[in-house]
Recover the amino acids of this structure.
């Protein structure tokens, strides 16, 4: 029986599945909802910390409008506020560059999963795991293996300092806030 291997290091467009019978690896589609653990050297460095409050408000409200005030993963809406703005990053593991590639609107439940490490610190990992299981149609075991793999990648990435590239903002209405 094939065992799903999720979160392999530096696989940008999907995950791999190991076929235990012959050792081959085949591409499988990426999960609908994934965990995105930010390397520890990049904690507290985000768009909100790099632009003015007015620019951040403009960016996030545009993100909400573009998504029709619905989660871009599950289509849902939160009970207190419909959606939250989440930053999309890609990682160049060879060069150590964390590059902003966009913003997406997520319901609070999907956003909690994206920041699974924070959910764990807050004691909300069970809730996040159940949502990850529900949205992706996974078993508890698949979620467990996926979370373990995501944290392995996080440990590898956190072993180095990352350069954060927010040049995606250069063609938007937001500009980095002047240094104080």
């Amino acid at each position: 029986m094939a065992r799903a291997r999720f979160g392999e290091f530096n696989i940008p467009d999907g995950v791999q599945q190991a076929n235990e019978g012959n050792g081959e690896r085949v591409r499988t589609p990426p999960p609908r909802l994934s965990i995105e653990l930010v390397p520890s050297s990049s904690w507290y460095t985000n768009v909100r910390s790099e632009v003015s409050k007015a620019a951040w408000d403009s960016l996030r409200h545009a993100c909400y409008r573009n998504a029709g005030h619905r989660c871009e993963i599950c289509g849902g809406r939160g009970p207190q506020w419909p959606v939250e703005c989440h930053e999309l990053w890609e990682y160049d593991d060879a060069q150590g560059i964390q590059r902003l590639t966009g913003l997406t609107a997520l319901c609070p439940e999907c956003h909690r999963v994206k920041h699974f490490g924070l959910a764990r610190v807050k004691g909300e990992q069970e809730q996040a795991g159940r949502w990850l299981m529900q949205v992706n149609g996974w078993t508890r075991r698949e979620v467990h293996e996926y979370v373990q793999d995501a944290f392995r990648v996080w440990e590898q990435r956190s072993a180095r300092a990352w350069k954060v590239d927010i040049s995606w903002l250069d063609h938007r209405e937001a500009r980095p806030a002047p240094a104080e």
User: Anything to note?
Assistant: Residues 45 and 52 are 14 Å apart (CA to CA). Strands lie at 3-5, 15-18, 25-28, 84-92, 97-106, 163-165. The chain has one domain: 33-171. The radius of gyration is 17 Å.
